[in-house]
Design goal:
Low-confidence stretches: none
Structural class: mainly alpha
Protein name: Methionine/alanine importer small subunit
Largest sheet: none
Radius of gyration: 16 Å
Keywords: Membrane, Transmembrane, Transmembrane helix
Shape: rod-shaped
Strand content: under 5%
InterPro entries: MaAIMP_sms
Distance between the termini: 49 Å
Number of helices: 1
Amino acid sequence: MGTSAIVMMVIAMVTVWGGLIASLLHLRKHPDEEAAE
């Protein structure tokens, strides 16, 4: 794997995992009211 491929892989992983963590934190602070029923 070349250096550019590794850099792009790291950027993609940070984007995916960062978005997942951000969405989990947002749901923890603002739970979905309809799902509780």
